[in-house]
Design brief:
The protein is 50% helix and 16% strand. It has 9 helices and 6 strands, in the order αβααββααβαβαβαα. The longest helix has 29 residues.
Length: 238
């Protein structure tokens, strides 16, 4: 975990890291308007080295929709950067089939990180209409961390928590991701390339958080078990 100033996590993720991340999600309660679908921005690094993770995320993304259907549904927007200054954001999508078709048409291209564009985009979107959470999956940062921090601070004021999923152990990314999570009131968790099930559970947890908050997570935990059940148990009595 890296949501304390200057504290870098151990080199490898562990079940304890995941539990700590899920507990942080449980303590974060997003503003939710009754009767409205949850809104989640799904941000990804689509530079050249990220193709395997892109393909893996495409395979598991449908669970975010299926697990929030009973809560009134989830609207998700895919946002990604790649190549030379290219940043794109989709329309808001209401089902996994549409997202899968979209992700299947995207190929990763070499380029530098553009996390600042993602954060700026999230600011603009939530000013138009409330966004409940932003998820980002990446492995490095090649930008000014202080400038990213300023944007993250604005997201924190707007009440949009950012959940940073770090693949690997790059120390600059660890610090930057942790700062973004801390300043927005979100959380940061590391996983490795072989932990598809961990990524699936983390994405599902944040999707349910965006759609229904703690009560919905408790209901899901009793049905799903695993990491989501751990989160639901942490929430009881709080």
């Amino acid at each position: 975990m890296a949501d304390n100033d200057g504290n870098l996590p151990s080199k490898k993720s562990s079940p304890g890291d995941v539990e700590a991340f899920l507990e942080k999600v449980a303590r974060t309660r997003p503003p939710k308007t009754p009767g409205k679908r949850g809104r989640l921005i799904f941000g990804m690094d689509a530079t050249a080295s990220r193709q395997p993770m892109w393909d893996r995320a495409a395979q598991i993304q449908g669970e975010m929709f299926s697990e929030t259907a009973a809560l009134g549904g989830l609207d998700l927007q895919l946002a990604y950067y790649r190549g030379f200054g290219e940043f794109k954001a989709s329309n808001w999508l209401g089902d996994g089939d549409k997202l899968l078709r979209l992700m299947s048409t995207v190929f990763c291209l070499a380029g530098e990180t553009q996390i600042r564009k993602l954060l700026n985009h999230a600011i603009n979107e939530t000013k138009k209409e409330k966004v409940n959470a932003l998820v980002f999956i990446g492995d490095c940062v090649e930008e000014d961390v202080d400038k990213l921090g300023a944007l993250a601070g604005e997201l924190g004021i707007l009440g949009l928590p950012v959940f940073m999923f770090q693949e690997g152990d790059d120390p600059v990314a660890t610090f930057a991701f942790g700062q973004i999570a801390k300043l927005t009131g979100g959380a940061c968790c590391r996983f490795d390339a072989t932990s598809a099930h961990v990524l699936r559970d983390l994405l599902s947890a944040v999707a349910v958080f965006a759609a229904g908050g703690r009560p919905a997570l408790e209901d899901l935990g009793s049905k799903r078990g695993g990491e989501v059940l751990k989160l639901a148990n942490m929430m009881k009595g709080k």
